Known about the structure:
- By secondary structure, the protein is mainly α.
- It folds into two domains: 34 residues, no CATH class; 68 residues, Helicase, Ruva Protein, domain 3 (Orthogonal Bundle).
- Helix content is 60%, strand content 4%.
- The protein has five helices and two strands; from the N terminus they run H-H-E-H-H-E-H.
- Strands 1-2 form a two-stranded parallel sheet.
Amino acid sequence: MARYIVNIHQKHEQAIAPPYSTKQLQKYIRFGRTIKPKITESAKQKLIEEYVKLRLSDQGKGKTVWRITVRQLESMIRLSEALARAHLDKEVGVVYVEGKFF
Length: 102
């Protein structure tokens, strides 16, 4: 699906004949929404590790307010879950946390 959308923006003429029909895409999206992926223990540890890195990189001289907040961690979790859902996976693994699945 991601390739299709990127192709539309890159290659307007070639993207007009998509490999999937609108009905097929709608069915895929509807099915994907039914999946409620669970975070694996290794993905949980990776999320924590990456969040800590972000927090530590945000520290600097004279800074009194954290710009990296729990909201960013929650966003990382939601994005990882969304990637698992897009791949129709019932588990959020490290690969979705890292975003290295292409």
